[in-house]
């Protein structure tokens, strides 16, 4: 499970403008994008990856957006899942109050990765890549900043993370 959280805009410059971060899972087969799960497409075609709802404000405690991944159901054609965050409203992550993203093993609640996003002066962040190998799935932490407001803008920049 990928979790993404942030607090509503409180800073003076954004007082009249909401901040909308987005959690995204990009499913690749080789170098080819096979499917995407994000605020405009809440489920992969087969239902193995699901976005549990879009938050456009950051209201509430904890994870504001969650992506659930059932790796036992991911189609065989998919060998990489890239998990990323983008800021739909265009602010840098450094301009957002208390932004974080994390990866949790939903079977036991163990947090595998967690990143405070506030140091990043870009509008996006690549958290990790799940990689399918002959012995199953493994997690590769990326923790890299990118400039992208929308997941579609991020797709052409993902090639380096697929190696």
TrEMBL record:
Task: Give the InterPro entries listed for this entry.
Answer: Stress/Tellurium_Resist, TerD
Please report the stretch or stretches of sequence annotated as the TerD domain.
1-147
Give start-end ranges for the coiled-coil region(s).
none
UniProt xrefs under CDD domains = TerD_like (cd06974)
User: Know the name of this protein?
Assistant: TerD family protein
Q: Which organism is it from?
A: Nocardia flavorosea
